[in-house]
Amino acid sequence: MIMHxxxxxxxxxxxxxxxxxxxxxxxxxxxxxxxxxxxxAWLVGRVTIAEFAKxxxxxxxxxxxxxxTSCKAPGASEGPYAVAVxxxxxxxxxxxxxxxxxxxxxxxxxxxxxxxxxxRRDGISYIFAGRQExxxxxxxxxxRADFGIERLLLEGGGSxxxxxxxxxxxxxxSLLILPVADGGRNMPMTFDRAPAPAKPLSLxxxxxxxxxxxxxxxxxx
Length: 221
What we know:
Elements lengths: L1 E6 L12 H18 L3 E4 L1 H5 L30 E5 L11 E2 L2 E7 L5 H9 L3 E4 L7 H12 L4 E3 L3 H9 L5 E6 L23 E8 L5 E7 L1
Parallel strand pairs: 1-7, 1-8, 2-3, 2-7, 3-5, 5-6
Antiparallel strand pairs: 4-5, 8-10, 9-10
């Protein structure tokens, strides 16, 4: 698992107050590196994936009890996949892919049948990892076994990044630092999690890119 993120020099990840030209430069570099990393999938949290939803919610009603086993949608034969963790099993996307990447949801086994019926109707794949709480390590096992995902890009936000960090599941970090100081209070950061022992890293490389953006690469110890 490679966490790939961009931030201000003080770790903020919401660009609403940043200079537009800097944000555009960061986006271009970020996407270029995303492609070069050649991941089998990219993974985000509920808030981030919800930004891609289309239209109004269209609830479905299940006509039968559905098994709590992995479901691969007909149009999701191969990746890269757009993976999201949906602890509440409430995301309503109304689309089956993001920029051509098939959507794949990670759910708890308590997800209601009606929600599973909606995902199936919309052509969204899903797996189960844990009964009530998402078990991230188990989720990675299912992503590999059921969908062939060997190389996964973790791309935020801060809460999901923090969860994987706490679970010790991040192997590498690819961090782009934009030359801007944010300082906004109570703003999402690269890692947002409850107080816990810090995770030591080993620096792999430092590269200065266009627009004075710095690319840092670390490996988990």
